[in-house]
């Protein structure tokens, strides 16, 4: 993947090195870099994904290189009027930031929006606070076997997913949103995830080394809209339910396994992501295929089989996971894994159904721990001039 | 910064959206993104900075979009032989990873090296462990006024700075290094930083909104080499001393200040980074310039004045700071700020001299807290076939 560097490339490289000036010291290590520079390619940080649309933009946007998930709790005195003002303020800020426009009172960064998305969801506790009916889809997720949930890093009145292809842009947007919410909502917890900046369209890998999202449904799949987007009430029509799980990976154990064992546990090849039943990454796994010795090509307890819609009455999740790596735990193990984020029309037919199977029968579950959990109702997207959740706040 | 999207761009955008398929749903918000895509520009993730060279590559490399600083402690039983084996293993892994070559036993990510650098330093405690003399430059940093240092997140036998333009590449490299060190060194603490992916060569901004590094020395400045690189002993000739400080920013207080007050405290404009004495970002601050009313253009206690080499007997630091944002503290304040990383020939004439002044007299010091601290001797770079620190291990 290392391309050549022509005369122009070298010159631009020196420009990019203005702080450290790597190219100016004869023989310095920094001077001989080869391949395209960020300066040559940096235009993509100017890319903008429109905020307004039928669905909130974070649901169908391409995988982003960075994301933060933040849960906010309402201040004790905040009621319907304050929540309405908050949603208006967040909508205005998000609409500006995603377009690369300045936010009044904010010191602009000078960076482009870098495909920024801001997706807002409501916890059941917010609906109760404003006296709105709580949809059955928003009933608390059940406890699953092996769960190790930390309640301080779970749930929340509001859940906000901010993604972009630039980590600074994500951090800056969160500061703007937190400032806009001050007095009405305060951050309850925040988690930071990343993927790769390698925007080739390949499925991003997770920290286990595996492409993560190979089996994701595609919008042209039959029933995609019905399985991912809610039908009602009016404020949720075109919305979706977001399940968040912080899933720590026991990487020290995982990395000690030989590659063939890791592939058996997943049910896919580590290099290409192709199912062990053959084909390429995009080939549907053949759960009945047998090896020459009569054994199943995809083992009975493999993750691909246990999580398949075929094993779960058609249950379908649109996953938007991000890796996290928050340093090391007191026992020396990496505090790292997956910020699992999945959208679905009804979690009872989606995440809950799949996870009830995985927690019992999936070989992979011995190498992960679910450490936090949250569920939010993500209302439909905005038309210009309206604000997120306006139908809810107006009783529709 | 939002460019148009031609026919090819649109098609590639759909390719990049394969996971979520944003472009395939008529009217979906994700479909109308404009501007260059990462897929069009992703070549820079293939860029490679050579590991071998006179200096370790992280010192003079251009500012990276991502970095992790990790301190390792030696296992109790590790002595000179084990440290030698560790340095050989780390050198081999770093040399391969920075070139985008596979590491034996590792599952490759398929991503390019993305300008990966791996820079290794030795704490005084490592030198004592192997019975080597401790250079006077490595004597512990003094305590400074206002310090709030957490010893559990300070110091360490080894300090490793890993930077790249891809967050996943950084995380993966750290996993490889940790695995290669297992049994000899264990992570003591790790901190994760970011800058921007906007590789235009502009000085990256910090979370206070200010370009950070405007006054950095440049390799063509008189005396640069003498001020940044150590003269000896042999294992340090061409090496440098690395000061690490985690500097939390009191962002809630900072953001409540009006812009003109923030600019007075820094001594530079927030938008352009130009000194308040006039000119552009690269203009040297004129510390004697007066406003029409006779007041100093750059106030007596402004950060630019207090940190200037003119105020500190010429003290010069090569700074490579990264922002961090680790969520929120129990009191609701953002746990965010700067991972301050500075290279110099002698910390006593560099960081220590400057910080003794800043902690007392710099207006900015009221808006920051130094929460962790470390000092490492970064040996000179490698020639091919040799390993990092070889001169030290061979008694030179």
TrEMBL record, chains A, B:
Keywords: Heme, Iron, Metal-binding, Oxidoreductase, Peroxidase, Signal
Signal peptide: 1-31
EC number: 1.11.1.19
Cofactor: heme b
InterPro entries (UniProt xref): Dimeric_a/b-barrel (IPR011008), Dyp_perox_C (IPR048328), Dyp_perox_N (IPR048327), Dyp_peroxidase (IPR006314), TAT_signal (IPR006311)
Record Pfam families: Dyp_perox_C (PF20628), Dyp_perox_N (PF04261)
Gene Ontology molecular function: any one: heme binding
Location of region: Disordered: 190-225, 266-292
Dyp-type peroxidase C-terminal domain sequence ranges: 203-382
GO cellular component: cytosol
Dyp-type peroxidase N-terminal domain segment(s): 56-194
Recorded family membership: Belongs to the DyP-type peroxidase family.
Protein name as it appears in the record: Dye decolorizing peroxidase
């Amino acid at each position: 993947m290392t391309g050549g560097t022509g005369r122009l490339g070298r010159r631009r490289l020196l420009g990019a090195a203005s702080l450290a000036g790597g190219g100016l010291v004869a023989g310095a290590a920094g001077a001989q870099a080869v391949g395209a520079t960020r300066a040559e390619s940096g235009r993509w940080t100017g890319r903008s994904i429109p905020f307004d649309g039928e669905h909130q933009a974070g649901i169908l946007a391409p995988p982003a290189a960075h994301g933060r998930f933040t849960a906010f709790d309402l201040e004790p005195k905040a009621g319907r009027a304050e929540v309405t003002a908050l949603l208006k303020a967040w909508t205005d800020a998000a609409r500006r930031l995603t377009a690369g426009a300045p936010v009044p009172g904010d010191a602009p960064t000078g960076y482009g929006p870098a495909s920024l998305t801001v997706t807002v969801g409501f916890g059941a506790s917010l609906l109760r606070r404003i006296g709105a009916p709580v949809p059955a889809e928003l009933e608390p997720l059940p406890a699953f076997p092996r769960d190790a949930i930390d309640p301080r890093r779970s749930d929340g009145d509001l859940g906000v997913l901010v993604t972009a292809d630039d980590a600074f842009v994500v951090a800056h947007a969160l500061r703007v949103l937190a400032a806009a919410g001050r007095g009405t909502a305060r951050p309850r917890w925040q988690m930071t995830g990343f993927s790769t900046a390698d925007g080739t369209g390949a499925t991003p890998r997770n920290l286990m080394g595996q492409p993560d999202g190979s089996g994701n449904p595609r919008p042209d799949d039959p029933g995609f809209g019905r399985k991912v987007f809610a039908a009602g009430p009016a404020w949720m029509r075109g919305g979706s339910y977001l399940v968040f799980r912080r899933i720590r990976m026991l990487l020290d154990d995982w990395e000690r396994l030989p590659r063939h064992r890791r592939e058996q546990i997943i049910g896919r090849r580590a290099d290409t992501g192709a199912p062990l039943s053959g084909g390429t990454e995009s080939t549907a796994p053949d759960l009945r295929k047998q090896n020459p010795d009569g054994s199943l090509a995809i083992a009975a307890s493999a993750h691909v089989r246990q999580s398949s819609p075929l094993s779960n009455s058609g249950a379908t999740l649109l996953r938007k996971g991000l890796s996290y790596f928050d340093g090391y735990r007191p026992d020396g193990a990496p505090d790292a894994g997956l910020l699992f984020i999945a959208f679905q029309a009804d979690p009872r037919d989606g995440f809950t159904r799949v996870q009830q199977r995985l927690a019992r029968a999936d070989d992979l579950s011995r190498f992960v721990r679910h450490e936090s959990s949250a569920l939010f109702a993500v209302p439909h997207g905005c038309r210009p001039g309206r604000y997120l959740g306006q139908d809810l706040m107006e009783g529709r």
